[in-house]
Amino acid sequence: MTRNDGVVLYWRPLCAYCMKLRFGLLFTRLRYSRRFTRVNIWKDPDAAAFVRSVADGNETVPTATVAGRPMVNPSLCQLLEAAREYGE
After folding, report:
1. What digits encode the pLDDT tens for the residues 42-61?
2. CA 46, 76, 85: angle at the middle one, nearest 5?
3. Which of 35, 40, 67, 83 is the most buried (most CB within 10 A)?
4. Phi/psi class of residue 16: alpha, beta or left (left: φ > 0; alpha: ψ in -120 to 50)?
């Protein structure tokens, strides 16, 4: 269930790392008008399966894709750098 365009953040409720990254993305989106899609892996079994497929069988979140390229547990800086690199 990967989306090949834009930045997609796979997350789950109660994950402190997810909340930190989502807050950073919200601030960035407001400041730079970038668009990010969020997918709750607890509500989307296909998304959970995708995360497991790129995280050695674990549901490691946050996981993101930038232009279809997966990033497991990226920092905000890494995610934004990848988005700039791929023109997202």
Report:
1. 999 999 999 999 999 999 99
2. 85
3. 83
4. alpha
